Structures are given as C-alpha cells and as structure tokens.
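haha ok so turns out i had the wrong file open the whole time. this is the CORRECT one, sorry everyone. sequence first:
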Amino acid sequence: MERIFRGVLRHRKVVTAVFLVLTALCVACIPHVKIDADMSDYLPPSAKSSQDLTAMKEVYGNDITNARIYVTGISQVDASSFAESLKGEGDVVSVTWLGDKASVDEPLEVQDADTIAEWYDGKGYLFDAVLSDTVDQAEVDHIRSMAQALPDADTVAMDGSAVSNASDMAALNIDMIKIMAIAILTVFVIVMLSTTSYLHPVVMLMTIGVAIALNMGTNIFRGSISSITQLVTSVLQLAVSMDYSIVLLTNFGRYREKTDNQFDAMVKAMTKSFSVILSSAAVTFFGFLSLAAMQFLIGQDMGIALAKGIVCSFFSIMLLMPCILYGMRDAVAKTTHPPFIKSFKRMARFCTKGAIPALVIAAVIAVPALLASSNVSFTYGKTSNLTPTSQVKLDGDTINEAFGEAQTWAIMVPEGQWSDEEALIDELKALPTTNSVLSYTTVAGGALPHELAGQDVIKQLINGGYSRIVLTSNVPEEGASSFALVEQVRSLISSHYGESYHLVGNTVSYYDIRSVTKGDQLTVKLASVIAIGIVLLVMFKSISIPITLLMAIEVSIWINEAVPYFMGQKVNFVAFLVIDAVQLGAAVDYSIIYTEEYLARRRRMPKRQAAIQAIERTAQPIITSSSILIVACFGIFFAASMPMIQQVGLLIARGAIISVIEIFFILPLMFIVLDGFIRHTSLKLGFYAGTADTAETAESADPEFQVESNASQLQNASE
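then structure:
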C-alpha cells in the first residue's frame, strides 16, 4: 500500500486531473437525472395497486384526475370558456366541469341539486383536471393566471397530487441550496475550531465536494432518484464523510512531527489511514445499504445513493485529498493557528460522575421506548407533506370547505358483463361516502351498442377489453376511514369479478404503501444490525464488543423513535424507516473511535482509568464529527419546505445527540462492567493486569505512548 500511495502522490497532478475530468462529466450529468416526487412510484411490482396502475396506463393512459381548480366570482359563460381554454393547454390531458354533468342551457335550479352541488357552490365553479406527468410549477402558475384573468374572478384555488408534485419540485432546488449552504458553513466553522489551520476546512470541503458531485452525477445510471434522496443524500454524505478526512489530516500532522520530509509524512499518513478509513467506511456503507432490503423501493433508492456516496468519499479522501493537501502545504503552514480547545479533562470527569445515573435511566426507559417506537402513527399521503402555510395546503382547505374532500378512483372490470357491472355500480352508489359513479352503463346503458355511443365515451370508458368505472368519494386522502373504504371497495369488486379487476387512486396506493412498509422497519433494523455486527466482529475479533456497541446504539435509536409517540406526533413513514440505518451507521463510527481508544489504553492500565482517559482523548474527534452531522441535519429541519424532509433532518439530528450522550456516558461504564465478559470472548486483546500505580509508571516510561496520546487524539481511537 505504501508503494501505491507513493506513486499516487508522485503523480498527484495526473490524479488531480483525472478527478477533475470525472467531476466535470458528473456535473454535466446531474441535470439529466430525473427527480421523482411521487412516492407511489416506489411501490414494489408485486403490490396490487402498482400492477393496477400499470394496467390502467397501458389501456387508458394517464387520465386519472390529479388536480382541482376552484374559481369564484365568474359567470357560467366564463366558466365554460375557461374549461375550453384549459383543454388547449399542452400539459392538460382532460377537463371536467359542471357543463359535462348538467345542461348549461337550462336553469340550474330545475336540475338535480346533488349534481349541481358537486360542481357549483353558489360562489364559484369547480374544475377537475388531468395534468400530464411532466407538468411543472410554471404551468401551474400559468393555469392560475388564466383563471385570475377571467372577468370578476375572485378566489382561485388549485390542489391535487399533480399540483403538489409541481410545488415540491419547484422548492427542491431552493431547499438544496439552503441546506448545502448551512452544511458548508457548519463544516467550515467546526473544522476550523478543531484543527490547526484555517485552510484545513477548505481542503476538506473541496475534496468532499468532488465526492458529492461524483455521487450525484453517477445517479444518471439509475435513471431517476426520489426527491427525498436528492435532498438528504448530499448533506449526509458531507457530514458522515468528515470522519475519514479528519483521520487522514490527523495522521499527516502526527508524521510531520516525526520527519521534515512532508512527502514521506503524507505517504505514511495515507498508509496508516487506509485500514482505519476502510473499516469505518465499510461499517457506514453496509449500514446505508441495508435500506435496500426494504420492500418499499424508496429504501433501495436511498440505500444505493447513500452507499455509493460513501464509496465516492472513500476514494476522494484517500487519493485526491492527499494530493491537494500536499500541494497546498506551504499555504497551510502560513495559515496555522493554535488549537482553540486544548483539553477535555473536565468533560471526562463529568461523564464519569454521571455514568451510573445515565445507565439506570437508559435501562429503565429502554423497554418502554422500544414499545413506544413500535406504535408511532405514520402519514403516507401528499397532503400530510404540505406545510400549513403552503399555497397548495391553503388552496386545498379552500376547496375542501366549499365541496368537501374528494378522492377519485378508477376501476377496470372485464367488458361485457353488464349485469355484474350494474350490480357493482348500485353497491358503490349505496356507500355513504360516494359522491358520484361514472361508467359506460351510467352514461349510455349496457344495452346501447358501442356504435351508437359517442367516440369520446367509448375511448374513456370502454377500451382494451375493459369497462372503466370512475368512483368519486367524499373521504380524506388518507386515514382510517379512507383505508377502510379501500378494503370495502376491493371486497365489493372481487365479489363480482374475483381478481380480474384493477383499482387505481392515490388513497389506494397509500393503502398499499402502508401494507408494504409494515414489515420494512424490522427488515431494515435486522439487516443493518447483522451487516454492521459482522463488520465489527471481523474488525475487533470479538463476539462481545459488537454486542456491547450495538446494544448501546440500539437503545439510543429506540429513545429517538419513541419521542414522536410520547409527543403525540405523526411521522412520515419514509423518515421513520430510514432513521434505523442512518443513525446506526453514523453512531457506530463514534463508538468505534471510543472503543479503539479504550482498548489501546486498556492494554496499559486498569479498566476504569482506561475508560476515563478514552473519553478525554476521543472527545474532540467525536464531538467534531457529530456536531457537523447534528447542525447540518438541524439545517435540513429549518431550511426544507417539505415536512417529510424536515422530519428526516430532525430525527437524524436528535438521534445523533442521543447517540453521543450514550457513547460518552453509558458505553464507558458498560466496558467497565463487562470487562471480564469482553476479555473471555475476544482474541488477543492483551488487557493490562497490574494496578493503577504501575500503569502510571509504565505510561510515563513509554515515550511512544506519550507521542501518540499528545500528537493524535483520533488516531489511537481509529486504530
């Protein structure tokens, strides 16, 4: 490895050029990566609603209502004109309004009152629209401006999944800029305070910036990524990867004290850091990759992106960062400053005094926290991912107040079985939640030959051997009543057609998302624990150490996940699913740093003394790395516009705080209590068997140990 790294550093200009070319190519690819804001697209192919949606699009195309437009103050003539104008817009597939359901040539007072009330509330008209998958915020704003331009138009409100998706995509880039700005500022300040040169954070940010660009650009090979992956992957990659750069930087500083030849010092630092960074990266890699074990494909989307980011960071830090750091060695030397924080002895004493109370508290609340974390209420739909002040949420409230909440579902049943279809329609109409039912039989009657019916009717309702029924129900987008209706409607359809039917709608998709993700939390937890446990087992050659570390970290995860339950909060299911792998992957790095330092000192001194000194020696690297993650994720919470993304940031930040507290207060005491168990279930630990007095004598007589302790607080921990 030393020969390889010597060659890398000798040809640093070539290495740097290769990275720059790859970065340029990846930056050029980033705009071509499709961002998908629709969580329904990540249902597994085996899910019923996923199969039904595919079948529906193949037969009828994308023509399920996904937008509602409500305009008050306008006349019926202007409403008709607006409907015709909408149909001419490129991103508008179809429009339905009062004129399609009732005769506008007759007084509304003499027509069916229920039908009129569905489309006109005395103040304004409602328009149901089908917008294309490619509609963006510019087109939504254009439609809004068209409505506002109508004579006497007062209120214009728009909602629906297409409008929500367009709003999310418009906010995505702005959120990305704000989140990354907060993360970069955080890294710069914290790293500057914890290192000895004002240029060190610049070098780190340049290196990890390249790694982030490589990761984002290579997403093009996956075709598309989810909006949540796009938002959180880069900042998590930045925060988690700082550990690796700190290890390399610390080793370089250590070897510079031993030799005046900075080239040799950097080569030795690269060689020494390789196994340390590789082990840490492997733990985080498998922790993130465990998300791919989820049935719900958002886990695969995030897991692959996060794990790929770790690989990009590993190679960037091991190959590119040394070249940059060595090339800027003179500038770095001119911008040195004394360390701002010199000692953590008081902190070590404080953690030691609070260890027993902390362990007792953790033991008491562990089981209740586990039970509470298993009973958190989740949200799945688009409406729950809207802030109370967002335009889409305010518009949705306005429309719901005027016409009630309405969900439109489409049912495909075999064509020609008219008696079964009429019986099903009667049963659907009898449901108390039903607003309307539209089908070929309700429009033309099953006895009417197709040739005598209008072609528009045939195309929309009879096609590909299927007859389509459009059901509009007065239910919220998600919730117990909505999901119960899905079960009831599926039961009614299957009583007539068995499994030969297809049912499509947002609520139907959310119902299946809920069903699919019920087992995903346990799957992710087991996959991440097993994967990381195996890495720790190989790394420490111990059975007890992985158990001890994972036990402490899992308790911190349970506590973090239990907070929403005790606060009576609902959490987006995606945010809750990813926290196991992300918090475990990040926290295990900190626990490894402490464990390695403790084991190194335990070989030289008694367990209590080793535990206290290990806190003192690892406080700086752990606090540095965790502070970056915590502040960056709080940045996500405050900067993001979508509650789902905010919840991800809050969960990770809070989880990192709890994990660090566990590591400094509880893990040292666990090592002390389990010292004998660890000794007999590990290979070649070589624990010290003398007294505290002889340990102090041995330490003071060991100059190499003194050099390591004073020159490299992180290195001992990582080795």
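Residues 446-453, 700-719 have pLDDT under 50 and may be disordered.
again sry for the mixup
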